[in-house]
Amino acid sequence: MSMQAQSRRPLLRALVRAAVLGGLLQAGAASALTLMQAYQAALLNDPTYQGAVQDAAAGEEYRNIGRSALLPNLSASYSASQNRSDLRGEGCWAAPR
Asked: Is 44 part of any domain?
């Protein structure tokens, strides 16, 4: 083996180790966010966007409330009362003796 080949061996070993280490690090990076996931996470945490989403949902409910005036109404009520009293006594309303 020539002297030049022997001097390349440590360099080759270092490159192989770096490639293996890089592969291991890349495997750990599989849980990194994609661009679309980052965009969706940003939208979920954006108060202006969330306010617009809630306003749109409220508008849909107002439309349903407005439509409800065109539908028939049904209502019912029930009331009951009972009074019972026994008047006995010697108060101001008692019969004279």
From this structure: yes
